[in-house]
Amino acid sequence: MEPIPETLEALELLEGEPSTLLDRLVWLAERARQVVPELVGVSIARQHEGLAFTLVASTETVAALDAVQYVDGGPCVDAARAVDATEFTVGDAVDEQAWHLFALATAAHGVRSTLTLPVLAGGQTVGTVNMYAATRHGFDGHHQELADLFGAWAEGAVANADLSFSTRLDARATPGRVRDQAVVDTAVELLADHLDVDEEGAEARLHQAAVRAGVDPVDVAHHIVRTMLDRDTGSSL
């Protein structure tokens, strides 16, 4: 399995080349494919950082799956809040008229079942592993084995919550989020030095300023970086 271009870009921004995280993700995806031969995609999300990384077996299989859920609704949002394992299949969706267009459209494009596993730390969900298969029951009987592989919680498994493969949208946005965080980190370092405070205090001030001004903290960070750098080089805005 191979990363989509945005995942490769994000990993290069995070770690440079070669990426040990990329090697790890590819290894995990291939191991998961040994468990579920019909596996066509894997997305791993870091909840706190808002980052997602996606690997796919075939770009043709998943090329038309991006926006279906937003046309007629879908169960993905519900799954993110789920605590107990739930089951939901393409057939059930059609039979129950629940997410009808969503189910029909995704059924036509190759993803027939999904499995979402929460990753816990200290009793809190810190991420999710989302897997996509080309058969309706691809993950049946494999929850625990896959959870053990990814270090996830099998009892919190949610089946078929993202048949539209919408986690690819998060993965595509990840490079931008990495760049934004790099700007914020730079601004925090500059503020900490300028104000003679620790970086935690500097970051708190940055976010407080953004809230008071009603703007995005990233925009504030960009202004801080430009102002500080212009000051140091003797130029003016």
Automatic annotation (TrEMBL):
Q: Where is the ANTAR domain?
A: 170-225
Pfam families from the UniProt entry: ANTAR (PF03861), GAF_2 (PF13185)
> Would the keyword Transcription regulation be found if you checked this record's keyword annotation?
yes
Highest rank taxon of the organism: Bacteria
The UniProt entry's coiled-coil ranges are: none
Q: Which UniProt keywords apply?
A: Transcription, Transcription regulation
Which InterPro entries does the record associate with it?
A: ANTAR, GAF, GAF-like_dom_sf, WH-like_DNA-bd_sf
User: What is this protein's name?
Assistant: GAF and ANTAR domain-containing protein
| Organism expressing this protein natively | Nocardioides furvisabuli
